[in-house]
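A quick aside before the break. I want you to see a complete sequence-to-structure record at least once, exactly as it would be stored in a machine-readable document. Don't worry about memorizing anything.
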Amino acid sequence: MPSETEQQLNRLEAELKRLEAEYNMFFAGRLPRPPWETRARVLALVKQVDRSHKPNTGERFRFTTLQARFAAFVDLWDRGLRAREEGRAGPFATPKERSAGRGDRVIHVSTFSDPTAEVDKLRELYDSVAEARRQIGADSVPFDRFAQLVQHQVEKMKGSGSAEVAFRVTVKDGKVNFTARPLKADEPK
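That is the input. The structure line, written in tokens, reads:
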């Protein structure tokens, strides 16, 4: 026959599993609101077991483990709720939701072996950078400075053994990123 404390611990463990399942359903969109009643019931049960006398060391260890698990879950759930209220991707967001929330997007990709001979591609790359900067409210860079930057990057990376240089324009976290990456002769563009 299990002791009264052991019965309370079994009930606490079952209620904690139920609360975890209800929060998972809430964050998955299957419940309309957080399980506040179940959470209050589990909190009251934790307090009740905490006040009771636990003569057995094993029961004390099991209770502190359940109590720590409950505290960790409460912290996680509160962070998830706060993120949802603020319109951010929280700890329960899928990778697709996280990337959609940040607004990461590739605007343009171009490869150059000699920018002075590929002026049309250079102008197209410049236009995409200028448009992306306008969209976020930043000033555009003069074309001649931009062309010098691209030429410098191509020369620098060709000097280190690359056949072509790939330039990518992205918008990430509300900022325009302009990156250059060397391509080897056998690497796909």
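Two observations worth writing down. The CA atoms of residues 5 and 52 lie 8 Å apart. The chain has two domains: 4-94, 103-183. We'll return to this after the break.
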